[in-house]
Amino acid sequence: MNAIKRFGSAMIVPVLLFAFFGIVVGLATLFKNPAIMGGIAEEGTMWYNIWTIIESGGWTIFDHMELAFVIGLPISLAKKAQARATLAALMVYLVFNNYINAILTLWPSTFGVDLSQGVENLTGVKEIAGIPTLDTNIIGAIAISGIVIWIHNRFYDKKLPDMLGIFQGLVFVTIIGFFVMIPFAFLIAFVWPYVQQGIGSLQGFITQAGYIGVWLFHFLERVLIPTGLHHFIYTPFEYGPAAVNEGLKPYWITHLNEFANSTAALKDLYPYGFLMQGNIKMFGCLGIALAMYYSTPKANRKKVLALVLPATLTAVFAGITEPLEFTFLFIAPYLFVIHALLGATMVTIMNMFGVVGMMGSGFIEIAALNWIPLSSNHGGIYIVQAIIGLIFVALYFVLFRWIILKFDIALPGRKTDEEAKLYTKQDYQNAKKEEETDNQEIAAATYDSEYEEKAVYYLEGLGGKENIKDVTNCATRLRVTVKDPDLVKGNDYFTKNQMAHGIAQSGQSIQVIVGLSVPQVRDSFETKL
Fold first, then answer.
1. Which ranges carry the PTS EIIB type-1 domain (predicted)?
2. Which tens digit of pLDDT belongs to each residue from 330-355?
3. Largest CA distance in the chain
4. Based on CB atoms within 10 Å of each CB, which residue in 21, 83, 246, 374 is the most buried?
5. Catalytic residue numbers?
6. Contact 365/279 with Cβ under 8 angstroms?
7. What is the dihedral sign for C-alpha 140, 143, 149, 151?
8. How buried is 286 (Cβ within 10 angstroms: 0-12 exposed, 13-18 middle, 19+ buried)?
9. Are 225 and 1 in contact (CB under 8 A)?
10. Angle value at C-alpha 7, between 214 and 133, nearest 5 degrees
11. pLDDT one-digit tens code per residue, 161-181
12. What single DSSP character describes residue 401?
């Protein structure tokens, strides 16, 4: 499970890029639509040409998704020399695709794929970095990158005889990968066409699952967030091949202009009810935040607002929900389950009323990829979406507030003991002066940033340098494997003075919920190690 969690966190590295590039393509599609922009957006105008150039840049990540994942995974999963592991993964991946190209060129009838017909005339094949090859999508990229990372972690430090010293390190890892890819390429050339057939069958099954499939997808995507395994739910749908081979996000963006110009029902044009969890982030999190605020004694509401407001805005606009969700997750886990149940139900009802689209993130991405480009012909659907969403905001608010008050859940601002108060930065600095020794005070005064300060604080709470086996991160969490979990301090240590949102522990696997600054904290953490 620890390995799976580490892999899930590594997936976030390339995934983080998709939101920006998706917004760029969405805005370009909007500004090139004459139905919205008028004559200025007619083909051939300077306005149209400028946005065509911008759009071409926005397609970069979608046209080269495989390379993004091949390069992105070693950044988190290589235990040393991540930059060299990244180069090795890229080289071996290109070697693999050259092998596939050669195999299918030499024995087209044996493997059932004739590349001489041209990539554009075949299904199941793709040109990657100029190499016509089987379209293994990100699954192939992840598999090969994973193999290279495994080789790198075990053989990068291998000492070779002096006469072969030039082949140590990066070169040795690449050499091993070079020869490992030969049988692997033959295996993929034989098996993958059958896998592609299976994917087609899976797509049919998912489509036939109807609203049950929509509800289950969104429930699992939300309820698995504490484990970090939610990446395995949405990634195959968003980037392929669970629903459509190229992934629903590229598919949606590719056809966005077609959808915008059509007056047919949007659900008929795009019959997929997945990847709408952004509605949970916008409406559900808003209802939860209101419930947290209004269940707090009036004397403390101003302080709670300072905590809840930025976390809620981050969830609603950027689609990053963990700062808000982890505020109550570890105090009352059943609230999180209720959150997942309500959210999945809300999205399923929206889908029943015809709401579909690319709505996996927050307000900004949803507006850019859905509301703005499609409102002229499909605005009625979004009015329905807003009405259902606001109804569920009220449901969330009433239910969460009632549960918080009924069971006296000790959320921030509701506790009466000193430990539960919301601390300011000045409170924290004063506490540090009282608790630390003179040497620790001197060390604290030399911190270059708050990231370094947090890194040292976490390192102490995790049992010190000798207790750390490895470290990585996802979008908001520092993920650490420790040798002795008994040396790890409790949740109160990490949440004290707002140093972190909390921790999740499963045996030797520790997740410190840091927030959006986790990449900088991880850099400082590794430097201290």
1. 452-529
2. 678 889 999 999 999 999 999 999 99
3. 77
4. 374
5. 474
6. no
7. negative
8. buried
9. no
10. 80
11. 888 888 888 999 999 999 999
12. H
